[in-house]
Amino acid sequence: MQIDKIEAKMIDEFFDGILALESKEECFAFFDDLLTLNENKTIIQRYQVAKMLYEKKTYQTIEKETHASTATIARVKRSLFDGNNSYDMLFKRIEQANKLTENEEE
Questions:
Q1: CA 64 to CA 17: how far, in whole Å?
Q2: pLDDT tens digit string along 5-63?
Q3: Exposed e or buried b per residue across 45-83, where buried means at least 16 C-beta atoms within 10 angstroms of its C-beta
């Protein structure tokens, strides 16, 4: 894993902090304080690219909708399909949560 190159104690403390956030509002505030506008845009763009690749969208559609370069799309695609399966886990959990929400609304 790439993240293993960061000192273990520092990364543990950072992720403990992330996991302590309790709402979207807290996430908005934290990431607004932590990252620059461009860093937030980059992270969000990569997430959207991963989501669209997961949904089997074409590069052309992804470029048009996210304004990501083909290099960024290719980089995200490598992580999505040859990485740690974290995107797959995340998107499946989101799908499950959405199904539960839909069932509760019925």
A1: 35
A2: 667 888 899 999 999 999 999 999 999 999 999 999 999 999 999 999 999 999 999 99
A3: bbebbbbbbbeebeeeebbeebebeeebbeebbebbeee
Give the pTM.
0.83
Chain mean position to CA 42: 10
Residue 48's nearest CA partner among 35, 61, 37, 36 is 61
* Token pair belonging to 72: 């960024």
Q: What does the DSSP assignment read for 8-54?
A: HHHHHHHHHHHHH--SHHHHHHHHHHHS-HHHHHHHHHHHHHHHHHH
Question: How many residues are given for the chain?
Answer: 106
Domains of the chain as residue ranges with CATH: 1-34 (no CATH), 44-105 (1.10.1270.10)
